[in-house]
Amino acid sequence: MTLQEKDSLYNWHPYTQHKTAQKPIVITKGEGVLLWDENGKEYIDAIASWWVNPFGHSNRFVADAIYKQLTTLEHVLFGGFTHEPAILLAEKLLSLLPGNQKKIFFSDNGSTSVEVAIKSALQFFYNKGEKRTKIIAFENAFHGDTFAAMAASGISFYTQAFQGMFIDVLRIPVPTNGCEEESIETLKRHIEEYDVAAFIFEPLVQGAAGMVMYEPQALDKLITICKEHQVLTIADEVMTGFGKTGKTFACDYLTTEPDMFCLSKALTAGTIPMAVTSFTQELFDGFYDDDINKALFHGHTFTANPTGCAAALASLELLFREEIQHNIAQINKSHRNFATRIINHPRVATVRVLGVIFALEVKIETEESYYGTLRNKLYDFFIENGVIMRPVGNIIYILPPYVMEEEQLEKIYEVITAALESVI
Questions:
Q1: Which class for 284: exposed (0-12), middle (13-18), buried (19 or more C-beta within 10 A)?
Q2: Residue pair 135/198 in contact by the 8 Å Cβ criterion
Q3: Helix or strand run (H / E) with residue 357
Q4: Is the pTM of this model over 0.85?
Q5: Where are the beta strands (DSSP E) in 113-177?
Q6: How far apart are CA 183 and CA 189, in angstroms?
Q7: Rounded to a whole number, what is the distance in angstroms from the first to the last CA of the chain?
Q8: Which of 149, 182, 366, 399 is in the most buried spot, having the most CB atoms within 10 Å?
């Protein structure tokens, strides 16, 4: 029995309808931006394996940090105990986040970081004796697959089986060009009419919605309105964090400071699952009490895993090396050059670039579903040509590791161009 056959026998894959999906490709090796399957075929990982590998696969610097930690202290419970890697990582993250961030809460992944933030927002007001049970989120948002994160998400086919089981979430339009005022006015109306605890958002880029982008000035206005009405703000930087937008965090483009940050994905350079939620001192103080019932009763077995913390510290050291910062700027330049070349193609509707993120909207006559025929044809074409990209409906996007070289980017651009000619 082959590995692929055994996989079909034993494994249930994410976001997969196994009756109709093709068999998963068995990957046996990764190095840099490249992956190899069991037959020796080479692929360029153009999306950093769901946005988590900024320094490529099998990065030796991160691997050495993990090995060193494993031979010292692989794990210890974080309830009643602590350790140096968690302390150093919290200190480092707080030095990078806006100055109002004072406390770090560790969890396992992007969904759980959002879960912690939403639960904390709701309990913060509960602890004060205030009834605030509503959350505001953008239309077509995606914040994860745990229950509160799903509730905040707005992509219906992810959540339609669970309607009626969620916390109350109110929607506002994304403040894209021309929709800023509608977004602002809807936010104001919701805050006036309902008992709102928090506003959660993906800053500047909605990843799963198809790399939808909007300007920082619009988000600043929304956050300012929330602050004026004591509504907490949650920046979901799970995708955008750690250099993706050209700055360390997307919120570094803002003049306002959110109350909470959710971080994961690139945090550990694609090695060990880990996430953090950061908080202001005011939020932490809302749980600081003689009454044990006002504590935040949330935790994970592998909270602040020392090995994951070591990987994150190594990842952050790499991020701020001059070579990596130069690469981020160079990838952005290459994306913008390609955008200029491709924007007038008859099959291209729009092109968007921010930092290392490139998104191209294919012109279509009828609305394309998230996993529709066009998307599947594009995905298959990219795989056949040795490039790993996962289009979102009619949106083709690139979000590469920061170590990608110019000739590898050019191959990705060439494959996209060829797809426009032969698939559409």
A1: middle
A2: yes
A3: strand 357-362
A4: yes
A5: 134-138, 168-172
A6: 10
A7: 37
A8: 149
Q: Is 37 annotated as a binding residue?
A: no
Joined tokens for residue 166:
């969620």
| 112 marked as binding residue | no
SS3 355: coil
Q: Six-digit token pair at 272? A: 């060990």
**Beta strands 27-31 and 34-37: pairing type?**
antiparallel
Assess contact for 222 and 235: CB atoms under 8 A.
no
Low-confidence ranges of the chain (pLDDT < 50): none
Instruction: For residues 140 and 175, give the distance between their C-alpha atoms in angstroms, rounded to a whole number.
Output: 12
Angle at 400 between CA 394 and CA 402, to 5 degrees: 160
Residue 260 DSSP label = E
Residue 366 has what pLDDT? 77
301 carries a ligand binding annotation: yes
Question: What are the beta bridge partners of residue 137?
Answer: 171, 200
Angle formed by the axes of helices 322-342 and 406-422, to 10°?
A: 30
DSSP assignment of 338-351, as one string? Answer: HHHHHTTSTTEEEE
C-beta neighbour count of 49 within 10 angstroms: 17
Question: Distance between alpha carbon 106 and the CA centroid of its chain, in Å?
Answer: 16
d(CA 352, CA 336): 9
Contact call for residues 277 and 260 (beta carbons, < 8 A): yes
Query: Comparing C-alpha atoms, which of 216, 141, 130, 99 is closest to residue 224?
Result: 216
Q: Cα-Cα-Cα-Cα dihedral of 104, 329, 336, 46, to 10°?
A: -60
Instruction: Let me know how many helices (H) and strands (E) the chain has, helices first.
Output: 14, 16
Give yes or no for a contact between 102 and 284, defined as CB atoms under 8 angstroms apart. yes
171 annotated among ligand-binding-site residues: no
Q: Which domains does the chain have, with CATH numbers?
A: 3-58+322-422 (3.90.1150.10), 64-319 (3.40.640.10)
Q: Is 341 labelled as part of a ligand binding site? A: no
Annotation-wise, does 195 bind a ligand?
A: no
Q: Is residue 299 a known part of a binding site?
A: yes
C-beta separation of 134 from 194 below 8 A: yes
The annotation status of 188 as a binding-site residue, yes or no, is: no
Query: Residue 28: which region, alpha, beta or left (left: phi > 0; alpha: psi -120 to 50)?
Result: alpha
Count of C-beta atoms within a 10 Å radius of residue 375:
20
Please report, for residues 61, 297, 322, the alpha-carbon distance to residue 328 in angstroms, rounded to integers and kept in the order given: 19, 39, 10
Run of H or E residues at 228: helix 216-228
Model pLDDT, residue 30: 98
Instruction: Look up tokens 């927002």; give the residue.
Output: 121
- The separation between CA 205 and the C-alpha centre of its own chain, rounded to angstroms, equals 10
Consult the annotation and say whether 363 binds a ligand: no
